[in-house]
Design brief:
Number of helices of chain B: 11
Helix content of chain B: 25-40%
Order of helices and strands of chain B: HEEEHEEHEHHHEHEHEEHHHEE
Helix content of chain A: 25-40%
Number of strands of chain A: 12
Largest sheet of chain B: 8 strands, mixed
Oligomer: heterodimer
Largest interface: A-B, 54 and 49 residues
Distance between the termini of chain A: 50 Å
Order of helices and strands of chain A: HEEEHEEHEHHHHHEHEHEEHHHEE
Mean pLDDT of chain B: 89
Structural class of chain A: alpha/beta
Radius of gyration of chain B: 21 Å
Low-confidence stretches of chain B: 1-7
Shape of chain A: globular
Distance between the termini of chain B: 29 Å
Radius of gyration of chain A: 21 Å
Strand content of chain A: 15-25%
Number of strands of chain B: 12
Mean pLDDT of chain A: 84
Strand order of the largest sheet of chain B: 6-7-8-3-9-10-12-11
Low-confidence stretches of chain A: 1-17
Largest sheet of chain A: 8 strands, mixed
């Protein structure tokens, strides 16, 4: 058993480097630039997403890391205009996908993209499946709407999809309702629905947060496996730095509604440049070796985002803070080839 | 002599604790079975230590924590607290012992009454259990707020005015109000952000040092348990699978479930992650109303043998202080 799993580990490592090689030449499938989303509330405007730009290559897995309220989910919802508008408003930016700007599309054409070319997996598999329809119906729905399959074809494809995500006796389980599945199984169903129409991009919003670690490990294995088979690009939103370390090619760290660091996964963990990333990595208790006497904590709290940012949002909690941090919000400075950090300390490098 | 010392340092002793919840079904609500949330669990908690209790959701760790405080009527078993069996005490007798044992809850949003001020929340146990007048109470509340790192001037504010981490501090201050010996911390950091978790864990550790508290720390976050606990118990489907000192459990786990659980925890380092051997468990946790015969883990165990499916394993001491319930562990 041990030798088998070592072998598998080796396969995944080599597969990973293969992915890295193809990335260099791969084309960009999704390009987001200057995205800004504001919520108009009774207490004033909340600037949830501030000037967010990133791009996604074919076959790439981009991890988006941040704490609650950092704007990671709102960013992804904004891409497909899944936010309630009003109160939300996308005030600036563009989302290039398939030679089109998704933000300019009318609702009809946007519906074709949602669940078709771009699949979405939500955090909570209990609330995102409809309890009064069978699982089979919910998987077949996008197939019939987007791919215009007839009932029998859709059914066959649904069975195929459930087998793909590792649900045993798929044929019978199509008739079951969501409450007859366990949490991990429900999340597999969600993945099957998201994959139904062979999406080019899969957006997974905290897909394993509500699950236990052993089930999380199962789901991560499935996603790794599916990536090899299907080759789609994935955006994986999470607050767990451990999960990202295991699966991502590139990582964007978000804080205060903006990307504060953007780098390849190895660089991010071996040489984090933004003080927030550094602090975040330091707060995690070690899993091996000597136990630390005391955990390093980040003092203070996350910023509230009322009003536009006029200074670095991390400045009040930063250990390396200096005058300039309070007077202007730093842009993303480029360090080396592929690493970016929004910190005034990098100004001379950038 | 060794026995003498053992009883001196043991604060809480749990023996063969069973907590079954009846299932009623049909028109006549007949009892058709039991959910065996906790099934024959025994452990000791030593004075001044932190015992970590880990496991996946539904394994019975919270039920164990609540049962230890006698928040349920036990199905069976004995719980001795400071040498006294509290399993059979009446509610009024229990009430006299309540100040000595307290609880910190998971969801700081739900465990604070939104209509009460912070002062009233923290002061309530003082009203119930002490004879302090209102000035003395106010004084004490301010001291408590100060000791959990909050501004004493916040007494007249309401819970919604605070962030999650601050609310958890209020919950901790309330638990400390009567100067308890023993606190059950039921997933106290699960609802908090990573950067706030460390603040709360540090606070719990500081308070333990200052006041000599004993914790039962329930969590599903293994790396945090590794940090805070002296000894760790691993639960699965209502039973304890392994109980060992921290170093032994994390560096040399004996039970196959502990091994699988530890290998499933992601490490925040891409180089480690790339070369890791994972034990991926197949299937799901069986229903606690109908647990497998033999070892409860046998249905998912990668090394299960014939006798694992028929014969429940004995709880045995493999090495000094390291206990395991497995036929095959060595």
């Amino acid at each position: 058993m041990t030798s088998a799993s070592t072998e598998r580990a080796n396969i995944t490592t080599s597969a990973k480097s293969q992915v890295a090689n193809t990335l260099a030449t791969a084309e960009t499938v999704l390009e987001v630039s200057g995205l800004e989303t504001v919520f108009h509330t009774q207490d004033g405007d909340v600037h949830a997403v501030n000037n967010v730009s990133f791009s996604l290559q074919q076959g790439e897995l981009l991890g988006i890391v941040g704490e609650s309220g950092s704007g990671k989910s709102v960013t992804m919802m904004s891409l497909l205009k899944l936010l309630p508008m009003p109160p939300a408003e996308i005030v600036a930016g563009s989302v290039k996908f398939d030679n089109r700007d998704l933000l300019q599309l009318d609702l009809e054409s946007l519906r074709d993209v949602r669940g078709g070319d771009i699949g979405f997996i939500f955090q909570d598999p209990m609330t995102s499946l409809n309890p009064v329809f069978t699982v089979g119906f919910q998987i077949m729905e996008p197939l019939r709407a987007h791919m215009k399959l007839n009932k029998r074809q859709a059914r066959a494809r649904a069975v195929e999809l459930l087998e793909l995500v590792g649900i045993p006796s798929a044929e019978e389980r199509l008739r079951d309702f969501p409450h007859q599945f366990s949490g991990g199984m429900r999340q597999r169903v969600m993945i099957a629905i998201a994959l139904a129409c062979d999406p080019k991009v899969l957006i997974a919003d905290e897909p394993t947060t509500a699950l236990d670690v052993t089930v999380q490990a199962q789901i991560i294995e499935i996603v790794k496996d599916l990536r090899q088979k299907l080759g789609m690009a994935i955006i994986w939103i999470t607050h767990d730095l451990g999960v990202v370390a295991g699966i991502a090619d590139r990582v964007a760290v978000m804080y205060g509604g903006q990307i504060v660091e953007y780098a390849d996964v190895d660089e991010l963990y071996s040489d984090p440049r933004h003080p927030y990333t550094r602090a975040l990595l330091q707060t995690l208790p070690r899993q091996e070796g000597e136990r630390e006497q005391r955990l390093i904590s980040i003092p203070g709290q996350a910023p509230n985002l009322k009003g536009p940012l006029t200074s670095c949002p991390f400045a009040p909690r930063c250990s390396a803070v200096f005058d300039k941090c309070h007077s202007a919000n730093p842009p993303l400075f480029t360090i080396g080839d592929r690493q970016k950090s929004a910190c005034w300390l990098e100004e001379s490098n950038g | 002599m060794a026995d003498q010392q053992q009883t001196d340092t043991t604060l809480v002793s749990v023996n063969n604790l069973k907590m079954h919840f009846p299932i009623y079904k049909g028109l006549l609500r007949r009892k058709v079975g039991d959910v065996k949330a906790v099934d024959d669990v025994s452990f000791d908690i030593r004075r001044g230590e932190t015992l970590g209790l880990v496991g996946e959701s539904g394994c019975g760790k919270s039920t164990t924590g609540r049962a230890v405080l006698r928040l349920y009527e036990l199905t069976d078993g004995m719980i001795s607290f400071q040498g006294e069996d509290i399993a059979q005490l009446s509610s009024s007798e229990l009430r006299d012992r309540r100040p000595r044992m307290q609880m910190i809850f998971q969801d700081p949003q739900a465990c604070l009454n939104p209509r009460m001020t912070v002062g009233a929340i923290i002061g309530e146990p003082l009203v119930e259990h002490t004879k302090l007048n209102s000035d003395e109470r106010n004084e004490r509340v301010k001291e408590l707020l100060d000791s959990v790192g909050m501004n004493p001037d916040f007494v007249n504010r309401y819970p919604h005015e605070f962030s999650g981490g601050q609310r958890q501090r209020i919950g901790i201050a309330r638990a400390l109000a009567l100067d308890p010996d023993f606190i059950v911390c039921d997933e106290p950091i699960a609802a908090l952000d990573v950067s706030i978790q460390a603040q709360v864990v540090n606070l719990l550790e500081d308070l333990q040092k200052e006041r000599g508290l004993t914790y039962l720390f329930i969590s599903h976050d293994l790396s945090m348990v590794r940090h805070i606990a002296n000894r760790v118990a691993v639960m699965y489907l209502g039973k304890i699978m392994e109980l060992a000192p921290r170093e032994a459990l994390f560096s040399d786990p004996k039970h196959p479930y502990t091994k699988a659980l530890l290998s499933a925890v992601p490490v925040a380092d891409p180089k480690v992650e790339a070369g890791r051997e994972r034990v991926i468990l197949t299937g799901d946790v069986p229903s606690p109303s109908n647990p497998p015969a033999g070892c409860v883990f046998s249905t998912r165990c990668p090394i299960a043998e014939k006798k694992c499916f028929t014969e429940p394993p004995q709880w045995r001491e493999l090495q000094p202080d390291q206990f395991v319930a497995c036929h095959l562990a060595e």
